[in-house]
Amino acid sequence: MYGELRNWTEPFPRYAGTSASRLRAQGPQLDRPDPKQNRLLASLPEEGYREILAELEGVSLPLGLALREPGALQRHVYFPTSGIVAIVYGLESGALTEFALTGNEGMVGTPLILGSETATSRAVVAGAGYAYRLSASVLKKLFERDVQTQQLLLRYIHALIAQTAQTAVCNRHHAVEQQLCRWLLLSLDRMPSEELTITHDLVATMLGVRRESVSEAVSRLQAREVLQCRRGHITVRDRAKLEACACECYAVVKREYDRLIPAKLAARASAPASTRTPSRARFQSPTLSSRRIYG
Q1: Can you give the pLDDT at residue 23?
Q2: Given this model, what pLDDT does residue 245 score?
Q3: 128 located within any domain
Q4: Contact, 142 vs 149, CB < 8 A?
């Protein structure tokens, strides 16, 4: 119905094409992040946060994991505390383009808030990390009952729509180097360090351009001492220079997120009594356990 995406798996080195309903997380148990490392969870009204706390379940997000497939029923929403999830569209030809990034500022599963249990887009992990997942029915009950939660999630959806629109404009009118800088900045805002574990192939897939175009842009940025690259890794040497090389699209998107879901709102909503992690949250590394991440 939505077309077979023959090429989207190629840039992902390990879990390419693996759906969240089939993947088994493997590895020793890891320290559990605070759910309020996710800005949306931290911004929930205290009563609403306490209501869902016991229902939150920690999951690993390995690179290439598909959290959502086109047309598939969505049973959970995801609140990343680290990592990057790309929302992508594909064509019958196999062409694939990312139109939005989600990280610790938001959630994966906004169609559920808007009344749809399916989506035409795919949600794929583009930067490994961790998340809390929540049953869709639990979130919908809270959304329908609590006006403050409604307003918060609708503001987030508005910011996501703004990012989607700005990405479309950027992809149409700006050079590959500017698009790359925008994408790197948005990704770094959602990661704990100035280094991304990512290949040129994956960046090219996300931007919907040729790999050679990305490699040429990276080389120019390295020559200007903006980036430092080694196989599978991109490190920002000078953040100010990177922002100067980007088009206005990065600043537009960042301002909108900061306006609609300001960090001070998340800080104000946080309270010591509610910063504990839920007892059900057991984080596993993606390399050794028999526990399913989804399903």
Answers
A1: 39
A2: 97
A3: yes
A4: yes
